[in-house]
C-alpha cells in the first residue's frame, strides 16, 4: 500500500483542476500546468480534492500510484506557491549576473558562460555569488539548476564551484608537508 498515494491532494481556493481522458490540467495564479496520467491509476476530482487509486493490484500500478499523486501535488503547489532553487558560487573571481534574458557566469574559464533563461523561469542574482531560480514547474526549475551546477561542480579540497544552497560538501584534507 502506498503511504504517499493514499492521501488526497487538497485543492486550494483559486485553483481549477480539469481531468480529461489521459491528462490532468491545473490552473492557478502562477499559470497553467498539465501532465499525462498513467494508465495504471484512476484519478477522480471531488469535494475540492483529487484522489488517486491504482487500477489493479500489480506492482507497476502500485508504483505509479504514489508517483502520480506526488506529480499532481507538485502541479498544485507550482501554480499556487511556485518553486525556488538557490545556488551559491564559491571561488575567487567566480560570479553570476543576469543580462536581459541571459544568465552570465564567470567560473574560471577563458570565457564567460552565457545561458539563455528558459521560458517560464525567472532568475535573480541579488549577490554576484548567489543565483535564485524560480518558476511554477518543479522539474524545469531543478533541471536548469542542474545545468548551471554542471559547469563547475564543487570540488572537495577548497569547496570551489557551484553548489545548492543547502548542499553539504564533504571536505578532504590537502597535502601534508
Automatic annotation (TrEMBL):
InterPro entries to which the protein is assigned, alphabetical: Ribosomal_uL6-like, Ribosomal_uL6-like_a/b-dom_sf, Ribosomal_uL6_a/b-dom, Ribosomal_uL6_bac-type, Ribosomal_uL6_CS
Name of the protein described by the UniProt record: Large ribosomal subunit protein uL6
Species in which this protein is naturally found: Candidatus Nucleicultrix amoebiphila FS5
Function: This protein binds to the 23S rRNA, and is important in its secondary structure. It is located near the subunit interface in the base of the L7/L12 stalk, and near the tRNA binding site of the peptidyltransferase center.
Annotated keywords: Ribonucleoprotein, Ribosomal protein, RNA-binding, rRNA-binding
Assembly and binders: Part of the 50S ribosomal subunit.
A single cellular component GO annotation: cytosolic large ribosomal subunit
Positions in coiled-coil regions: none
Any matching Pfam family: Ribosomal_L6
Domain Large ribosomal subunit protein uL6 alpha-beta: residue ranges: 11-82, 91-164
GO MF: rRNA binding; structural constituent of ribosome
Family affiliation: Belongs to the universal ribosomal protein uL6 family.
Gene3D superfamilies named among the record's database cross-references: Ribosomal protein L6, alpha-beta domain
GO biological process, one term: cytoplasmic translation
